[in-house]
Every structure is written in structure tokens, then in C-alpha cells.
Design goal:
Layout (H helix, E strand, L loop, with lengths): L5 H16 L2 E2 H9 L12 H7 L12 E3 L5 E4 L4 H6 L6
Antiparallel strand pairs: 1-3, 2-3
């Protein structure tokens, strides 16, 4: 619920891409979050470290939200968090 935070921006970009193309791939998500001119609401200077923090479940992480299919580079929601995130999806759109 804090749109200025990078984790919020990444989730917002993820949902935008789902709506536009259904499947979300790492390079598409990175491009969306790195394009200040066209996507200022999801732009951040350092995408990779912020995204990496959202792939792990550790004490000092942002909390695990995503998984990546190693074969296709498709980004998916972590099964454990998906129902709760879908409940709050409207905050990111």
C-alpha cells in the first residue's frame, strides 16, 4: 500500500504485464521497471537487487513473492503468497 516502494512497483509492473500479455518474463519485467519515460509509476534505478530480494524468504528480505522458471525465465507468483496477493491486487493496479 506504499506505491513509492520498489517492491510495490515491481508487483504493479507484474500485474500490468499479466494484463497485457498473460505470461511475464524476467526481461519484460526488468524492462518495465527500468523505463522511466514510459512507465514512471514502476520505474526504479536498481531493479535486480530489489527483485532478487522478492525471490527469497529470509529475515532481511522484502519477503518472497516471486519464483522464476529457470528454463523459460517466466516469472510467477509464489504459491504460498498468491492467494493473499490476489486479495490485494486492486492496490497495485
Amino acid at each position: 500500500m506504499r506505491p513509492e516502494q520498489n517492491n510495490h512497483k515491481i508487483i504493479r509492473a507484474f500485474f500490468q504485464l499479466v494484463r497485457e500479455q498473460r505470461n511475464v518474463y524476467y526481461n519484460d519485467l526488468k524492462a518495465r521497471c527500468s523505463n522511466k519515460e514510459n512507465y514512471h509509476l514502476t520505474y526504479m534505478e536498481k531493479f535486480k537487487p530489489n527483485f532478487d530480494q522478492m525471490k527469497i524468504d529470509a529475515i532481511k528480505s522484502n519477503g518472497k513473492v516471486f519464483q522464476i522458471n529457470k528454463g523459460t525465465e517466466e516469472v510467477i507468483l509464489w504459491d504460498f503468497i498468491e492467494p493473499r496477493l490476489m486479495e490485494y491486487k486492486h492496490y497495485f493496479e
